[in-house]
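Hi all, posting the design record for the shared folder.

TITLE: backbone redesign
STEP: 1 of 1
STRUCTURE INPUT:
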């Protein structure tokens, strides 16, 4: 009997050792091998994730999500012209999606006329956030690369109407009244093409409001290829997925933007998308009060690490505004100044 009891224990030790060796080998493998393994793992894991159902109200932790919507052909054609024009003007100056020069995924930024982006362009700090201290010396180089990848555009036929259509279509999903004025063409900061360039996965991440993830509201259009949009709350406890076909658009605002991380698992590794980033956190009001329209802490409170190494809060609604539109009723209910209460501290979501 003792011999039989020891066998399972020895087998577990052997298996653990094999796992350690496999992990060490993966750490030493080329980046593309690591990412391919990550994509395969995600593809398996998300099979168990619940889908976001378009005929239902999003769960509380995803409030402010605008469901996948098919863009009419005439507007999609205009957005394709916008997408390709930015690509052409950026030419060889594309920047890395992750900030790593070796990352084949690329992005660029287009500033359109008569938008807030044309006013604040020089104030944008387009660099990747939450870096290790050793990487800080590379931040200036990254900022310079992103400036080169930011192009100024002239007025383009149909683009303004296409963006206005998206804003009008998505407004009903912006549940906080203070956010709705930011979903307009004039509040657009930048249009951002993203190219997967052979990588299936855009890892789950949160868009830092003061860095390269600027934008109070973000609308994304699938320009080339289908994909699965992945959502995870800031505590890393709740997950969901949503299919986004080529030619469809979706939006994140409120809690879905502030307190959730998102990523993409592409059906086509050559997938391309276009982000439209509206509104700027910490932008001063025009009433000489010195107050900001939407403070960046509405996002950062969920993600910045406190001194004891823990994340901040688990969301109880978004911090997006002072009034929340009740789903399916048209009624409004008051929420706190920040729109949420603080819960016990949780470990940060892995992204």
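Okay, here is what came back for every position:
SEQUENCE:
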């Amino acid at each position: 009997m003792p011999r039989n009891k020891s066998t399972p224990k020895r087998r577990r030790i052997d298996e653990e050792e094999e796992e350690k060796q496999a992990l060490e080998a993966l750490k030493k493998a080329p980046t593309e091998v690591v990412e391919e393994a990550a994509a395969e793992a995600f593809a398996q894991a998300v099979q168990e994730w619940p889908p976001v159902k378009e005929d239902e109200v999003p769960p509380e932790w995803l409030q402010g999500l605008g469901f996948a919507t098919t863009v009419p052909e005439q507007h999609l054609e205009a957005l394709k012209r916008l997408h390709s024009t930015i690509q052409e003007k950026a030419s060889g100056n594309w920047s890395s999606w992750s900030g790593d020069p070796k990352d084949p995924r690329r992005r660029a930024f287009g500033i359109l006329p008569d938008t807030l982006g044309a006013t604040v362009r020089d104030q944008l700090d387009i660099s990747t956030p939450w870096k290790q201290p050793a990487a800080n010396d590379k931040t200036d180089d990254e900022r310079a690369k992103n400036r080169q990848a930011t192009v100024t555009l002239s007025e383009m036929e149909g683009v303004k109407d296409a963006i206005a259509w998206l804003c009008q279509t998505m407004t009903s999903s912006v549940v906080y009244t203070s956010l709705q004025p930011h979903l307009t063409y004039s509040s657009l900061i930048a249009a951002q093409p993203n190219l997967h360039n052979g990588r299936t996965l855009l890892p789950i991440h949160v868009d830092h409001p003061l860095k390269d993830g600027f934008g109070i509201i973000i609308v994304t259009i699938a320009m080339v290829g289908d994909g699965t949009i992945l959502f995870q709350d800031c505590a890393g406890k709740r997950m969901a997925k949503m299919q986004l076909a080529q030619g469809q658009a979706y939006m994140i605002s409120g809690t879905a933007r502030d307190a959730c991380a998102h990523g993409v698992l592409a059906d086509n590794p050559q997938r391309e998308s276009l982000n439209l980033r509206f509104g700027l956190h910490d932008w001063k009001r025009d009433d000489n009060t010195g107050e900001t329209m939407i403070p960046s802490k509405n996002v950062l409170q969920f993600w910045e690490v406190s001194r004891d190494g823990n994340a901040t809060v688990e969301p109880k609604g978004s911090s997006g505004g002072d009034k929340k539109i009740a789903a399916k009723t048209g009624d409004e209910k008051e929420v706190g100044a920040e729109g949420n209460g603080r819960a016990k501290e949780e470990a940060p979501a892995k992204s």
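COMMENT: The chain has two domains: 2-48, 60-278.
Let me know if anyone wants the other runs.
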